[in-house]
Amino acid sequence: MGGAGKELRVSKIANGTVIDHISPGKAWIVLRILGITERSDVVISFLMNVPSKKYGKKDVVKIENRELTEEELNKIALVAPDATINIIRNFEIVEKRRVELPEFIEGVVKCSNPGCITNASEPVVPKFRVVSKAPIALRCAYCERITGEEELLSQF
Ligand code: CTP
Ligand code: ZN
Q: How far, in Å, from the CA of 48 to the mean position of ligand 2?
């Protein structure tokens, strides 16, 4: 497993989702995207900065008995573009996929410009072009303002 050594650091799970290859340090924000707080009654395994063959270091989050929505996956792609989503049923990986960071993003996040038409009272769906992947930078299709990682993180 992921170059961690001879033994698993945490157990395999029976059912749920393993989010693997999260950019190091970003597991916290992944939990925030999923709405998981200290009050949540869910079983989570949380690995941070563990060795990874592919990326040097990575975070991993295992969430038992939960599968993720497309909207959650789209948000995770913004902060962890190399994340792998493994869906586990009865201990087997029944689906493995990468999150996808498309060239254009619509409606997932807000523009950082308070004066942008997408932040006006009449709703206009925000649209961005992804101009950088890691760290993330989105250029607004309406006002051209760049929304960066800091501003995105404050929305999650
Ligand atoms: N996993 C788990 N519970 C299971 C099955 C897998 O927690 N019942 C976890 C593994 O510990 C690993 C991840 O899911 O963190 C992916 O498993 P696997 O595909 O077996 O590992 P790798 O081959 O290292 O994955 P990849 O090819 O995506 O790097
Ligand atoms: Zn804008």
A: 34
Domain ranges of the chain: 16-98, 104-153
CA of 93 to the centre of ligand 1 (A): 8
Per-10-residue mean pLDDT of the chain, 156 residues long, equals: 64 97 95 95 96 92 96 94 97 97 94 96 93 94 96 92
Give the closest residue to 1 by CA, choosing from 49, 51, 48, 66.
Answer: 51
104-153: which CATH topology? Answer: SH3 type barrels. (2.30.30)
| pTM (2 d.p.) | 0.90
The domain defined by 16-98 folds into Alpha-Beta Plaits (3.30.70)
